[in-house]
């Protein structure tokens, strides 16, 4: 990539990207095809963790990313975007860790057993029912 002055642009993170790509390539070569879903689940968990960590870094130092000047607040749109990114990244991370544990079958932790993960209030849909005066005033036959 060329800059306007004719100098070659330098991306300091390109070395990390190359190192990560090399590690992934080594893992793919050594993993059997029957264990490929385990590898994909592990890689997706790292993707979710990276999304959450990046969002945390941006919130901690927005001026380093050019989103706000030092000492000023993040714009509202960026805060919403970072919240959504953190939320989706955390769900991706936790779900992929559970998927990896279930697919590998090596771990005896209760979340990694063959049964589906069931949360306590799963069947409770009371939050969907209308509340307040409008609900009590509905027409009864």
UniProtKB/TrEMBL annotation:
Asked whether the UniProt record includes Membrane among its keywords, one would answer: yes
Taken from the record, one Pfam family name reads: PNTB
Listed transmembrane segments = 39-59, 82-101
The keyword NAD is annotated on this UniProt entry: yes
Signal peptide annotation: none
Keyword field: Membrane, NAD, Transmembrane, Transmembrane helix
Which InterPro entries does this chain map to? PNTB-like
Q: Where is the NADP transhydrogenase beta-like domain?
A: 19-108
Q: How is this protein named in the record?
A: NAD(P) transhydrogenase subunit beta
What is the native source organism of this protein?
Answer: Paraburkholderia terricola
